[in-house]
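Milestone M4 deliverable, item 7.
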Amino acid sequence: MRRLDRWFVLLGLIVATGCLGFLSARHSWTWDWTRGARASLAPESVAVLGKLPGRVEVVGYLSPAGPLREQIAAVMERYTRAKPDLVLSFVDPDLDPAASRQLGIAGDGALLIRYHGREERVESPINERNLSNALERLARGGQRIVAFVTGDGERQADGRANADLGTFMRQVERRGIRAVPLNFSQTRGVPEHTDLVVLASPVAALPAQSVTALVDYVRDGGNLLWLTEPANDDLGTGALADVLGVRVLPGVLVDGQGSTLNVNDPRLVVVGDYPFHAITRAFRETTLFPQVAALAQVSDHDWAVVPFLRSGERSWTAFGGIDNDKPSTVAFHPEAGELKGPLDFAFALNRLSPSPAKSEQRAVVIGDGDFLSNTYVGNGGNRALGERILDWLLGDDVLVDLPARGAPDRVISLSQDGLNAVTFGFLVFLPLVLLALGVGIAWRRRRR
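Output delivered:
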């Protein structure tokens, strides 16, 4: 009977092994236990793949000699795990040098990603960041042209000064958005094939021809991003405000709730809760806005106006100046005409497009441009919010709610007590434990 039981146990083990082999050949299970899931795709990469329904072809023009093919196959395995209909193949460029030259393949080779008749190239270094940027450009459907008005002290799209937008625009250019300058002293209007015009915080009064060109552009159905500032209502932009149906309120927004977040300057408006709009859907990051102008909307317009940035209940429009070198005496003065919050300072506008070539026209007006400047774009969710605004204005709604891009935390913060404990553990405690184990083993052997 015992022998029969053993045979049954052996048969069960054989059947179980066969079942496991059968399942493993048809299904795969992967668990990533690394810190920050570094062995898996980042959430934004997975989200981009979700915006590409259907087959995606990745062709690697790489020589079979060397380890590069294996390294790229290992990277692409993460993508195929998340999207099974992403297909990777390799071509030896040395076998057809004429075709390689025609495609511009040289040096270490390149990857060509094809989707629905469109193509993007990824060259060295071939990593997840560059691959996901290329996939996002494919999801966007083509390069978008964003024209930045220049000539009157506006923030420069390629500038490196503190107030410019160079850092932000260099990030979004990798995602298929190209910035070009637009100077109305050199051109009579907005060029064709411009997807978006940006008026970023001019410091000098705009010439009448510039305002007229912007008004005509909006009336003809063009999309606009207008970053204004406190006291910018005297720069000749009244006609542009009229066509959009908005007003820049006098004064500077001050908000007392920033003190709970260790923000000492009341002019720094901290936002962590957002009115509902497509731009802010599922957006939970905290954003920081210096020197904000409150906005108001004018009735009797055909725009649908939705506020998506709003100050707190402890805010108001302060008319007096603030000296940060002295104790703050800022206070609410309703008798002077100051308005108590919460107050809106960003509007998203849309309407049926006057242009027959478009179905919808969109515009965004924000009472602050500093939040995207080189100085402040790295604070909290400022860059992520700016990317959402551009995606919505460009009509790339499928990309608006992509997760914010960011590297996992690789910084270890230790107090002095924690550092002392780690030092004691590795330099004193662990050697003593190993010494004690060695002495114990030697003593036991001697007793034998």
